[in-house]
Design goal:
Layout: E1 6-8, H1 13-38, H2 41-51, H3 56-59, H4 61-84, H5 86-102, H6 104-110, H7 113-140, H8 147-172, H9 181-186, H10 189-201, H11 204-223, E2 229-231, H12 240-243, H13 247-268, H14 270-278, H15 282-306, H16 312-332, H17 336-349, H18 352-361, H19 368-377, H20 381-395, H21 398-401, H22 403-419
Antiparallel strand pairs: 1-2
Helix pairs in contact: 1-7, 1-8, 2-10, 4-5, 4-7, 4-19, 4-20, 5-7, 5-11, 6-7, 7-8, 7-19, 8-15, 8-18, 13-18, 13-19, 13-20, 13-22, 14-15, 14-17, 15-17, 16-17, 16-18, 16-22
Length: 421
């Protein structure tokens, strides 16, 4: 009986190996692209809070728009790729990504917050296609026993995008001008409008450049021959019911939901947290966030190395517990030490997403594509938990609000301990 697992034709093994290397390199570039745009969100949150005069809860809708896009588009993306293939899904994702980036221009011109949210939703819809394709594609392009290590390696370039985005975004988007409420109230209507438009306009050039780069990558995919990855068994009858019979997949979906919520909360409010606890200026805080994400990048490489010796589930549990301890310090210390505690968390977050993903789709066979879509849908945790965090911040303070990611990491620790089974 033929295997129902996805496979690549091996009629010419030497040529196929070459195709795999080119495909792996090109697909890995996608990890950088979606990480870069996502890690501009912690810059956009304080920036649009100023430009559009928002509360913390309202500014958290930036994350909600992004991760709602993932939630709504992940399963359609999986179904489209099941019918037309990974390459067509990637092309669709890149086209949506570029369109959303270009929409930042009219959004800035009008200073309509809903247009910004719509543009971010479209970018996220494109990224849902890219992540739904790239994560399982990487696990297939090589031996099954090294799938987790290979995915962690690709995700390392995700870490590179995460490192560069706050540094570049802080330099070209944040103005460094931080008026008090009294200073804003003292401005004339014309002065206030001019200042707000100045702040809004700073996003246009960065997002135009992003759109150009994404369109260039789209062109490379168009002209590059990708390995033909498909199911060996034509009569694949995978469905939501059959996919959810895998208990470890269901546990992985919940773990991913809470993990992404934690990840988004930790970084999205970092600039606000640094200002509140230590009066760190926004540009300096953006630089610190960039270096924190350098820790995320280093952590990916360290994690890739460690998973060769330590079972991935055990490392996941250990890193989750350490993250909880660091956030406990951040919530209780009244000094710059609180900022450094949050600063350290991304290093330990680094291996969580790819490890949960790989453990979640392990042994799914014909349910792999749908299982992958469900795990990408779980990214919707990033839409819910920042809203809770923003609400707590508005009701009390941003330091107390870090209880939300702390609790989220406890679910990830459980998955690594028992849920992955």
């Amino acid at each position: 009986m033929p295997s129902p697992t996805p496979s690549v034709s091996t009629a010419n093994p030497t040529a196929q190996a070459g195709n795999h290397k080119v495909a792996f390199a090109l697909v890995t570039s996608l990890f950088f692209l979606w990480a870069f745009v996502h890690n501009l969100e912690p810059i956009l949150i304080p920036h649009l809070k100023k430009a559009c005069q928002l509360t913390d809860l309202q500014s958290a809708l930036i994350d909600s728009a992004v991760y709602l896009g993932y939630f709504l588009m992940a399963v359609p993306a999986g179904l489209i790729m099941k019918k037309y293939g990974y390459k067509q899904g990637i092309l669709a994702g890149l086209a949506l990504y570029a369109l959303g980036a270009l929409l930042f221009v009219p959004a800035a011109n009008t200073r309509m917050y809903l247009l910004f949210l719509g543009a971010l939703f479209i970018i996220a819809s494109g990224c849902a296609f890219l992540e739904t394709a790239a994560n399982p594609y990487v696990t297939i392009l090589g031996p099954a026993n090294t799938a987790t290590t290979r995915l962690n390696l690709s995700q390392s370039f995700n870490g590179l995008g995460a490192f560069l985005a706050p540094l570049i975004g802080g330099k070209f988007i944040l103005s460094g001008i931080e008026h008090s409420e009294a200073e804003l109230a003292a401005m004339t209507p014309a002065q206030l409008d001019g200042y707000l438009q100045f702040e809004a306009d700073s996003v246009k050039l960065p997002y135009i450049i992003i759109a150009i780069v994404v369109l260039a990558v789209l062109g490379l995919f168009v002209i590059t021959r990708m390995p033909d990855v498909q199911n060996r068994e034509a009569g694949n009858t995978a469905s939501l019911r059959t996919a959810l019979r895998h208990k470890h997949l269901v546990a992985g979906i919940w773990a991913q939901f809470f993990y992404v919520g934690a990840q988004v909360c930790v970084t999205s409010f970092f600039i606000r947290f640094a200002k509140y606890t230590s009066n760190v200026p926004e540009k300096q805080a953006a630089d610190w966030l960039g270096y924190a994400m350098l820790g995320f990048l280093i952590g990916r490489f360290v994690g890739t190395f460690l998973t060769s010796f330590i079972p991935a589930n055990r490392l996941l549990t250990l890193y989750s517990l350490i993250s909880m301890a660091l956030l406990g310090v951040a919530m209780t210390v009244e000094s710059e030490l609180a900022v450094w505690a949050v600063f350290a968390v991304p290093f330990f977050q680094s291996i969580m997403f790819p490890t949960i993903f790989a453990l979640g789709i392990d042994r799914l066979e014909e349910d792999r594509e749908l299982g992958s879509s469900l795990l990408v849908m779980a990214i919707a945790g990033g839409a819910l938990f920042p809203l809770l965090m923003g609400w707590i911040s508005d009701q009390s303070n941003i330091q107390l609000a870090y209880i939300i990611p702390l609790l989220c990491f406890s679910v990830v620790a459980w998955f690594g301990w028992r849920g992955y089974k």
